[in-house]
């Protein structure tokens, strides 16, 4: 079933140059939308600073988990075992298809933001879905891997938020240092 769903989505690649470019752009550049939204939230108000940092922690934890899983659990990419419509950039054959790092990180950030800022969180969540679809479209991942990656990123984000009291002293110290640095700069520029 996973291969059938993969083929339904992936067979559309190569039919429309415009759609292919959109999918490649989403896959390669969507992370910059996430960064921009986090920067906007950072400067929006004091409470969002800590939440933005907590989102960074969620993404960092998810990155470490995906790295470990990919290291110990190699799954060949779809283009290794099957004839697919492969769009660039072509990942290395030795790179495991499970998990989709793009999707896991997108959902870690999206769910983390969704827990405290609904509008931006929903934008990021929907963009995460498009990132996952783009990875299938391009021939880089199977659908089930995308679903598991989205689940991993979401669960990691929930776990970080459940343990936010443990992270609070570090985040508060970082914000304090940031505010001191900004005050110092203001004083020096006067």
Task: Write up what this structure looks like.
By secondary structure, the chain is mainly α. The protein has one domain (2-189): Vanadium-containing Chloroperoxidase, domain 1. 78% of the residues lie in helices and 0% in strands. Helix 2 (17-44) packs across helix 3, helix 2 packs antiparallel against helix 6 (118-137) and helix 5 (101-114) packs antiparallel against helix 6. The protein is elongated and about 60 Å long. The model has no long low-confidence stretch (mean pLDDT 93). The chain crosses the membrane at residues 21-41, 53-72, 123-140. Keywords: Membrane, Transmembrane, Transmembrane helix. This is Phosphatase PAP2 family protein. InterPro entries: PAP2/HPO, PAP2/HPO_sf.
How would you summarize this macromolecular structure in one to three sentences?
With 190 residues, the protein is mainly alpha-helical.
What is this structure's SSE topology?
Blueprint: H1 2-10, H2 17-44, H3 46-72, H4 78-81, H5 101-114, H6 118-137, H7 143-162, H8 164-189
Helix pairs in contact: 2-3, 2-5, 2-6, 3-5, 3-7, 3-8, 5-6, 5-7, 6-7
Number of DSSP-assigned strands? 0
Q: What is the averaged pLDDT score?
A: 93
Distance between the termini: 65 Å
In the CATH scheme, what's the topology name? Vanadium-containing Chloroperoxidase, domain 1
The CATH first-level class comes to Mainly Alpha
Total domain modules: 1
What structural category arises from helix and sheet content?
mainly alpha
């Amino acid at each position: 079933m996973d291969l059938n769903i993969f083929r339904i989505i992936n067979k559309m690649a190569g039919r429309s140059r415009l759609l292919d470019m959109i999918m490649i752009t989403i896959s390669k550049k969507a992370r910059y939308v996430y960064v921009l939204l986090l920067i906007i939230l950072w400067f929006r108000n004091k409470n969002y600073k800590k939440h933005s940092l907590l989102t960074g922690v969620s993404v960092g934890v998810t990155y470490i988990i995906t790295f470990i899983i990919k290291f110990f659990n190699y799954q060949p990419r779809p283009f290794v075992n099957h004839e697919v419509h492969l769009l660039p950039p072509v990942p290395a054959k030795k790179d495991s298809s499970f998990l989709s790092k793009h999707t896991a990180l997108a959902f870690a950030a999206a769910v983390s933001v969704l827990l405290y800022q609904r509008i931006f969180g929903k934008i990021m969540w929907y963009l995460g879905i498009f990132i996952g679809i783009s990875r299938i479209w391009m021939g880089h991942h199977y659908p089930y891997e995308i679903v598991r990656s989205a689940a991993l990123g979401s669960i990691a984000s929930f776990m970080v938020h459940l343990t936010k009291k443990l992270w609070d002293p570090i985040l508060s110290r970082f914000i304090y240092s940031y505010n001191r640095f900004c005050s110092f700069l203001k004083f020096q520029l006067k």
